[in-house]
Amino acid sequence: MNFRNRLALPAAFLFAALALAGCQQGTHPADAMTKAASPAVPQAVAPVPGGAPSGAAAAAVKSIHSPGMVATDEQLAAGQCSAKVVDAATGEYLPDPACTPGATDPAVTQENLDSTICMSGYTATVRPPASNTDKVKAESLREYGQTAAKTTEYDHLISLELGGTNSVSNLWPEPNKASATGTTNPKDAVENTLHKAICTHKVTLSAAQNAIAHNWVTAVKDLGL
Questions:
Q1: What's the rounded Cα separation, in Å, for the pair 76 and 79?
Q2: Are strands 92-94 and 103-104 parallel, antiparallel or unpaired?
Q3: How far apart are CA 47 and CA 18, in angstroms?
Q4: Where does the record locate the signal sequence feature (predicted)?
Q5: How far apart are CA 21 and CA 16, in angstroms?
Q6: How far apart are CA 141 and CA 146, in angstroms?
Q7: DSSP for residue 178
Q8: Which single residue of 63, 160, 164, 191 could bond 123 by disulfide (Cβ 3.0 to 4.6 Å)?
Q9: Residue 178 Ramachandran class (φ > 0 left, ψ -120 to 50 alpha, else beta)
Q10: Cα separations in angstroms, 90 against 25, 60, 150, 180, 217
Q11: Neighbours of 69 (CB within 10 A)
């Protein structure tokens, strides 16, 4: 055996030992190279209940202080938004979560409920006049691709009685059931139930706000009320 072969044999044994050690640890050299070269596989995004399409997340609920007037915190294009029909017969429609994620008033807190939303007459102190909302409502109808109807309410997703605020991100043209004769709709009863639960301390302010913003149709059930 010549000198070159005597050097080659120890080197071969050393490489074999290193490879065996890597396999025992679950990392073969070839596997490591393959993993490094392979692109990451994106994880599937679960559907967002309440109207967000699969793979798309709704925008987060905003915090905006705008008493007495509608804050234009979003610029939306005509036809950009679409309400989701849950049950047309009973008037259950959800806003487009990408256009109307909801917004709360930071001036309303868990600590000052008795002097804000749980005080009689509170909403009248922060509700915008019709002269302000009528113009914004017309724009919202175009954004949602809807035509004006006497039964359509320009509604706060998180109502003022739940500490919601006046902003484009919290207002939407809510369709009503076909048999409706006015703007009273099934969401009103949900708002009243949540308001009572907040003021009797059965649920927290933030829990109620998040539940109705997420899906007002299931909010009462989601909160165990």
A1: 9
A2: unpaired
A3: 46
A4: 1-21
A5: 9
A6: 5
A7: T
A8: 160
A9: alpha
A10: 61, 28, 17, 9, 11
A11: 16
pLDDT in tens, 49-77: 333 333 345 679 999 999 999 999 999 99
Domain ranges within the chain, ordered by starting residue: 3-37, 62-222
The single residue listed with the structure tokens 């679950």 is: 26
- Amino acid symbol at 130: A
Specify the residue for token string 């393959």: 34
Helix axes 205-214, 186-199, angle to 10 degrees: 160
Nearest to 171, CA basis, from 132, 124, 207 = 132
Which position has the token pair 């006497």? 150
Alpha carbon distances (Å) from 212 to 20, 174, 175: 59, 14, 17
Give pLDDT tens digits for 105-162.
999 999 999 999 999 999 999 999 999 999 999 999 999 999 989 999 999 999 999 9
- Taking the CB of residue 21, how many other CB atoms lie within 10 A of it? 10
